[in-house]
Design brief:
The chain is an all-alpha fold and 76 residues long. The chain has helices at residues 15-18, 29-32, 45-48, 52-67. The longest helix has 16 residues, at 52-67.
Length: 76
């Protein structure tokens, strides 16, 4: 029986850590839109490459921006 090779996924570096971001502001819509898909959903860490700390910050900032009506909840 031949061995099946498993593909190793390339680990993405956190963009926020590279830019030395301390806090993700909910008013910075241009940055937050990078972490949303075309329907307005928040992208997971495995797609964005964020570390856990910055992904939580992005999540909270997006949710705050949605409450302030800066970002829509869904896009049709």
């Amino acid at each position: 029986m031949p061995k099946v090779r498993q593909r190793r996924r390339k680990v993405k570096a956190c963009k926020m850590c590279e830019m030395k971001v301390e806090y993700v502001d909910y008013k910075d819509i241009k940055v937050l839109k990078d972490f949303l898909n075309e329907k307005g959903k928040i992208l997971p860490r495995r797609l964005t490459g964020n570390c856990a700390k910055h992904q939580r910050m992005v999540k909270d900032a997006i949710k705050r921006a949605r409450q302030m009506a800066l970002i829509p909840y869904i896009k049709y």
